[in-house]
TrEMBL record:
<feature type="transmembrane region" description="Helical">
    <location>
        <begin position="443"/>
        <end position="463"/>
    </location>
</feature>
<keyword id="KW-0472">Membrane</keyword>
<feature type="transmembrane region" description="Helical">
    <location>
        <begin position="406"/>
        <end position="428"/>
    </location>
</feature>
<feature type="transmembrane region" description="Helical">
    <location>
        <begin position="372"/>
        <end position="394"/>
    </location>
</feature>
<feature type="transmembrane region" description="Helical">
    <location>
        <begin position="311"/>
        <end position="331"/>
    </location>
</feature>
<dbReference type="InterPro" id="IPR020846">
    <property type="entry name" value="MFS_dom"/>
</dbReference>
<feature type="transmembrane region" description="Helical">
    <location>
        <begin position="195"/>
        <end position="215"/>
    </location>
</feature>
<dbReference type="InterPro" id="IPR011701">
    <property type="entry name" value="MFS"/>
</dbReference>
<feature type="transmembrane region" description="Helical">
    <location>
        <begin position="40"/>
        <end position="60"/>
    </location>
</feature>
<feature type="transmembrane region" description="Helical">
    <location>
        <begin position="98"/>
        <end position="119"/>
    </location>
</feature>
<dbReference type="Pfam" id="PF07690">
    <property type="entry name" value="MFS_1"/>
</dbReference>
<feature type="transmembrane region" description="Helical">
    <location>
        <begin position="131"/>
        <end position="152"/>
    </location>
</feature>
<feature type="transmembrane region" description="Helical">
    <location>
        <begin position="164"/>
        <end position="183"/>
    </location>
</feature>
<dbReference type="InterPro" id="IPR036259">
    <property type="entry name" value="MFS_trans_sf"/>
</dbReference>
<dbReference type="GO" id="GO:0016020">
    <property type="term" value="C:membrane"/>
</dbReference>
<feature type="transmembrane region" description="Helical">
    <location>
        <begin position="227"/>
        <end position="247"/>
    </location>
</feature>
<feature type="transmembrane region" description="Helical">
    <location>
        <begin position="277"/>
        <end position="299"/>
    </location>
</feature>
Length: 482
């Protein structure tokens, strides 16, 4: 096997650890409560602490990858994931476990943006399109696989610990392989680590921590100061960093292009704003991640509260992952050759909306009618959506900004997942006697999220036609045909 292809296979395998770490937690809460002798409020932070730091650090780690070398940041993240996985399996107390899960989240933040950037660095043309399909497949399908693994490992004698031993083993295997086969990607030729916008980085991480923390706390009480104070403050801080870098720093760069400001590496590069459909893809990623998380997690919670074991409940929602996997294997970008990618996004999202409405009709004893097929079709359509949006980034974002751009995209997605999770916990937890009604209420957020994506891209298409731009935006042929 080609060295680059072998390295890519190991990178792809390591990437799955991120979504596995998130979704496995959803079906391990009972085991965590039993083994740690803690209540749900405490063990939920074992799950949330990972998402908190992962979402807060992913832009920074992406930028570091572009500066010091993608393979350096990726392998560092893999080491952190492996070491913390072993520690979490061995630690018998909740508080240190929460702390090390938070550290593990930083490792996950290092894996995600660098994986996509490494793919863009390793391959070109048809090979890149093919590799990217498999990367999206592993990234999205691992979310569903994680719920099954979490439920399955919880059934063992040592409970949740067995999952983290598995997590450690996968990390070590990938790390051992990459030690021999990694293809090094040289760091940026001009920008150095000393040129990083350290002040902006610190405030950005702090702002994102506040936003995700606020949504995490919202699952318990939306009227708490931990929610209505932290989220707005976090948004203000993040927007402030963006304005500082996009306006003030850009003016200083123009004034002193050869000085320190001229070389400064910012978290929000102005070049990304000129990349066609990049901002729209990021915003749509937030809504789609939110809708998908809401659909899957609400059904998962319903089936567990209705008497299914975590393993059986996760198997019930697994058809969505099967759809993602089959689409990843069968779909080829040239199937939509000649179509505006925005139209592909609208159609795939419209199908997701229709299937989520059909799933919303679920009831006891009618799983085969309302959930099985609709979840499969929704997963298939989601894969088309992600392949389209990720391909936009791989093709149109400059190579030296690939990890940074993907980090921003993943941050939007993480906020969407946090919002969906908060809504589910706050609604379903209100009254156990109204389980079905409350789960159906959660679906309204999924409907609204999918609809927002459809409206956003439809307006953009209509605006171009109104201005007389009747030619479809087509992807470069060499890049999309596989």
């Amino acid at each position: 096997m080609d060295r680059k292809k072998l390295a890519f296979a190991l990178v792809m395998c390591g990437l799955t650890l991120d979504n596995l770490s998130v979704s496995a937690g959803f079906t391990m809460t009972d085991s965590l409560e039993e083994k740690l002798h803690e209540d749900y409020a405490t063990v939920s932070w074992v799950i949330s602490s990972y998402s908190l730091t992962m979402g807060a650090f992913v832009i920074l780690t992406g930028k570091l990858g572009d500066i010091v070398g993608l393979h350096v940041v990726y392998i560092t993240g893999l080491v952190v994931m492996g070491v913390t996985g072993l520690i979490v399996a061995l630690v018998p107390k909740a508080i240190p476990l929460i702390i090390f899960r938070a550290i593990q989240g930083i490792g996950g933040a290092a894996l995600v943006p660098t994986s996509f950037a490494l793919t863009a660095s390793y391959f070109q043309g048809k090979e890149m399109a093919s590799a990217f399909r498999y990367l999206v497949l592993s990234r999205t399908a691992s979310f569903g696989l994680g719920t099954i693994l979490g439920g399955a490992f919880s059934e063992t004698s040592i409970g949740y610990k067995s999952y983290f031993y598995f997590h450690f083993a996968v990390s070590v295997a990938c790390l051992a392989g990459l030690t021999f086969f990694v293809v090094k990607v040289p760091p940026h030729k001009v920008v150095k680590l000393r040129d990083l916008d350290y002040a902006g980085s610190i405030f950005l991480v702090a702002g994102l921590l506040l936003i995700i923390l606020g949504f995490t706390e919202a699952g318990t009480r939306w009227d708490s100061p931990k929610v209505y104070v932290t989220i707005p403050v976090g948004v203000i801080v993040v927007v402030g960093v963006a304005i500082y870098e996009l306006v003030i720093i850009e003016r200083l760069k123009a004034k002193w292009p050869d000085g320190a400001f001229g070389r400064m590496a910012v978290m929000f590069p102005s070049e990304l704003g000129t990349v066609e459909l990049y901002i729209a893809s990021c915003v749509s990623g937030l809504f789609v991640y939110c809708a998908y998380a809401t659909t899957i997690l609400s059904l998962l919670q319903f089936h567990m509260d209705d008497g299914d074991s975590p393993l059986i409940a996760s198997l019930r929602v697994f058809p969505s992952s099967v759809g993602i996997i089959l689409c990843g294997l069968a779909w080829r970008p040239h199937y939509t050759k000649g179509m505006d990618p925005r139209l592909v996004v609208v159609i795939s999202t419209l199908i997701c909306l229709g299937m989520s409405i059909w799933t919303w009709r679920f009831r006891d004893g009618e799983y085969w009618r309302y959930e099985l097929v609709s979840l499969f079709i929704q997963g298939f359509s989601l894969s088309v959506f992600f392949q389209t949006t990720f391909l936009i980034m791989l093709q149109k974002v400059p190579m030296h900004l690939q990890a940074n751009a993907n980090g921003i995209f993943q941050t939007f997605g993480q906020v969407g997942i946090s919002l969906g999770s908060a809504v589910i916990v706050s609604i379903i937890g209100q009254d156990a006697s109204k389980l079905v009604t409350n789960v159906k209420r959660c679906f309204y957020l999924a409907f609204a999220s999918y609809a927002a994506v459809i409206v956003m891209f439809a307006i953009d298409i209509a605006w171009d036609f109104w201005r007389g731009k009747t030619e479809l935006k087509q992807e470069p042929k060499a890049e999309t045909e596989v």
